[in-house]
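Why should sequence recovery work at all? Because a backbone constrains its sequence more than one might expect. Tight turns favour small or flexible residues, buried strands favour hydrophobic ones, and helices have their own preferences. The token representation captures these environments compactly. In the example below, the structure is given first.
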């Protein structure tokens, strides 16, 4: 009974190990994809940042210092960050997205005197830079979450592979040894019982032969004991007791 229970546990542990191994492989593939995307995004961030700040300098040179006018506006957000979830092999990864609210652009009159084109270029470059920043934040957050999930999954895989399954196999080996030992004990016990029976038969025959020999020496004839096949069953019946049968 216990052997069947532990065999079931071993099968379940091996199935779980296989599934966790597949999950770990899938997470590794996604982990490499995120690492590659982060590297590519970061490589372009330096050029985008320098281009955006240089365009701001050009706009200030062409239109003057317009930061004060921008800060005096209503400051209604035209861009927001949306949060979502991406499921990768059962691991929920946070995903950030860039979307525009559709709010009206304040300070649209900036640059009417001069530098309007430069200010519009600043808007476009900083919008592109913001999109890349949100994308990078999403990738790095998912990267960290995926790294933690990989560590947990690998620990579980190693625990099943190096601790749980070997322990169950050790218990099964112990049960198998005990069952073999019990089988050997039963075999030895049967051999002893059979040997004792044979010795008893030999002793009984020896005593019988000894009694016959002593009887012959004393001049007595020892009649052999009749068995069931040698007994005359008709000796106990008298034919004269039966009535005549008339046909």
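From this structural description, the recovered sequence reads:
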């Amino acid at each position: 009974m216990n052997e069947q229970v532990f065999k079931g546990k071993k099968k379940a542990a091996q199935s779980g190990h296989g599934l966790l191994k597949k999950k770990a492989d899938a997470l590794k593939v996604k982990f490499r994809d995120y690492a590659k995307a982060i590297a590519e995004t970061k490589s372009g961030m330096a050029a985008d940042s320098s281009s955006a700040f240089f365009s701001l300098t050009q706009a200030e040179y062409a239109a003057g210092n317009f930061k004060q006018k921008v800060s005096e506006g209503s400051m209604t957000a035209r861009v927001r960050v949306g949060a979502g979830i991406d499921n990768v092999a059962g691991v929920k990864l946070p995903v950030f997205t860039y979307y525009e609210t559709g709010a009206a652009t304040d300070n649209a009159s900036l640059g009417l005197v001069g530098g309007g084109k430069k200010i519009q270029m600043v808007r476009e470059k900083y919008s592109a830079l913001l999109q890349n920043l949100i994308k990078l934040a999403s990738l790095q957050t998912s990267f960290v979450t995926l790294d933690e999930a990989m560590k947990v999954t690998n620990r579980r895989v190693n625990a099943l592979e190096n601790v749980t399954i070997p322990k169950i196999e050790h218990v099964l080996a112990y049960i198998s040894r005990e069952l073999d030992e019990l089988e050997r004990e039963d075999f030895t016990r049967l051999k002893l019982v059979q040997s004792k029976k044979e010795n008893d038969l030999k002793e009984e025959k020896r005593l019988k032969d000894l009694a016959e020999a002593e009887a012959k020496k004393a001049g007595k004839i020892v009649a052999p004991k009749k068995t069931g096949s040698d007994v005359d069953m008709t000796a106990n019946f008298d034919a004269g007791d039966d009535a005549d049968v008339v046909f």
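A few observations help interpret the result. The chain has a mean pLDDT of 78.
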